[in-house]
Amino acid sequence: MAQIQWGTKTPGHIIYLIDQSGSMSGANEQKAAESITAAMIETLKGCIQEKEVRNRVYVTIIGYGNENGVSVVKEGWIADFVNDLQVCKKNNSTIIAPKSYGMTPMADAFALANKCITTWLSQRESVQGDYKIPAPIVINITDGYPDDANEATAEAQKVMNIVTRDDGNVLVFNIHMDDSADQVEIKFPTTKSVLNGVPEGEFLYDISSEMTTDFIKAAQAQKFEGIVPGSKGFVVNAKGDTLVRFVTFGSGVSQH
Amino acid sequence: MELRYKTFIMPHVGDSYSQCADRFAIGTDKNCFAIADGVGESLFPYDWAELVCEDFIANPNLFCENNKLVRENALIEAWNQKRDERTANLTETELFLFEMGLEKADFAACTFVGLSIDKKQWQSLALGDSYLFVLDKNLEIIESVASQKGEEFSNFPEYFASQAEKNHGKTIKVCGDINKVTYFVLLTDAISDWFIKVDTEKRKELLAISDMQSFHSLVNKERENGNMKDDDTTAVIIEVVHDDSDDIKYTKLYNTNINDLIEEEEKCLKLEDSLEDMENDSFIKNDTVEKKTIIEEIDGVNAVSQPIELAILPKENTDTTINSHSITSSPIEELTNKLRQYIDDFIKLGDELLDKIDYVKSQDTQNRNRWDKVGKSVKKISETGKTIITNLNKIKK
User: Fold this and answer.
1) Hey, are the CB atoms on A10 and B13 less than 8 Å from each other?
2) Is A4 domain-assigned?
3) Contact B351, B312 (CB under 8 A)
């Protein structure tokens, strides 16, 4: 599924989960914030018609591991972020402040995402009438292993198991950041065997949605290579450029 | 030979006609027809689509050479002018958005298919995934003309662009014997895709459509069933009736004018804005008597009509028939005349729009309840307006 094109009558919902734990300190926290900013700018561009913004996308950014534990950092229609993004473009700043502190409560982040999605779907069902409701997309950006992998897997799978009224299951994409030169990027794997026992990879494999036919075409159009039916929507050991491209791709895949 | 034509257009779900990027043109003096689908991701595609269609019907035989529009420079200049008009006086935020949009595309683009006819043959030129279908008397497709076909339906079509170097793809030219033709059908991509896939019975359904209401019903049904992609959708259907005459005669069975539709839509929006303004008008809500009654009236809570005009005068003048002597006659006349004119115009516009709202309600099924509510509000306001006029007429001079 996930075939419904996002539009003003059929708006999409993107939920970014951003790891803000202590291990993200340094370049990673900055890159993660930049990737979300870049993706939101591209999302905004996709919603611009001449000089107006059309509310085709609702965005929720959830941070986990910062001094607040897990919280919604920002939330709103893409049009609500125009002024902020204008400032980001002008000052080369980021839509959320880069942060890194504490543990990695990814399970709680998925649980909060679940709540946000459920609320969103319920609200849309009440206001959209017969218009179809697209499947929300969750993009999780992390550099490591969660505090409790079993719990995180369970919570993430609860999100993946949310079935929308019209467009199949909620989709979860994951990106694991690692800029080390000796760590090879593994993109859109079809089996766990290609992950060479990387624990973060195996964990994320289990909580990533399979790419739909439409997504595969869209990814191929954006020059991502090696994507075939059965590929999972995640990348391990992503470098800076891949991070931005993947987050932007995941954010805009249903826009056109 | 007689050509009986009808034209229909419908925007993407949730879009207004002003956002619809499809255009078509009919040139009966030069026996030609054109249809263009502005590429959604480009800039002001509807203006470009319109210019290209109009250019074809003005010069069908000298329209395009070597994949290039013959009057490309003039068309680009005309589009630039329209763009400049549309972007004059932008606010800072609008300018930011416009410039962001330019990063996506700073030019307009459209797919195209044109058809010209003479007594012996037809000729067509196409670029992109807009189609001409040529049907015989059994309604079988004997020719289909498009430069991109089948699997090539995509968001990246071939097109004419408002920047010469951005033209994309190669045009295709096809001609044929007019005597074999019973129908020409020009369609933009989504409905073309559908037309290719469906059986003859479904095609008959489209060919038999006689008004916009039926067209909207068919498209809505096919979209809802997942048989037709949700996109701007346009159809120009021409039935060829062969006879012994040497002339080509035209019968307009149904013609849609997109600019009229946009104008009507703007009127509707204006009316909605007026209704909202009335509901929010502090003049009505503040410092006047019967505040609660009036607000209830406007909100439709109180079905019993209350004299809304009481609120329009200051508190001391609530009973106008009694207190009018305390005001000089000139301001009263001025006020009553202005009120009468304002309300008359409003009632007239409301009555005109009620029919249109009924029609839109029947088409826009997803918003039926909302349109119903809008219609009821307009009716209520019209009725209240009539009460105002009655009461104004009672004011002693």
Assistant:
1) yes
2) no
3) no
Token output for B351? 């009555």
One-letter amino acid at B247 equals D
pLDDT of residue A7: 81
Domain annotation covers residue A132: yes
Q: Which residue positions in chain B have pLDDT lower than 50? A: 152-153, 282-329
pLDDT in tens, B124-165: 999 999 999 999 999 999 999 999 886 544 556 799 999 989
User: How many angstroms separate the most distant Cα atoms in chain B?
Assistant: 84
Q: Are B38 and B45 in contact (CB under 8 A)?
A: yes
- Radius of gyration of chain A, Cα coordinates, nearest whole angstrom: 17
Interface of B to A at Cβ within 8 Å reads 12-15, 19, 41, 43-44, 86-87, 90, 93-98, 100-101, 103-104, 155-156, 224, 230, 365-367, 369
Strand pairing report for A12-19 and A137-142: parallel
For residue B258, the model assigns a pLDDT of 92
State pLDDT tens for residues A1-51.
677 878 888 889 999 999 999 988 888 899 899 999 988 998 898 888 888
Say whether pTM exceeds 0.80: no
CATH superfamily of B2-256: PPM-type phosphatase domain (3.60.40.10)
- The pLDDT of residue B287: 43
ipTM entry:
0.82
Q: How many CB pairs under 8 A join A and B?
A: 65
Query: A47 to chain B, minimum CA–CA distance in Å?
Result: 9
Residue A125 resides in a domain = yes
Please give the Cα distance from B30 to B26 (Å, whole number): 9
A31 found inside a domain: yes
- Assess A53–B contact: CB distance below 8 Å, yes or no: yes
Report the domain count for chain A: 1
Nearest-CA residue of chain A relative to B13? A9
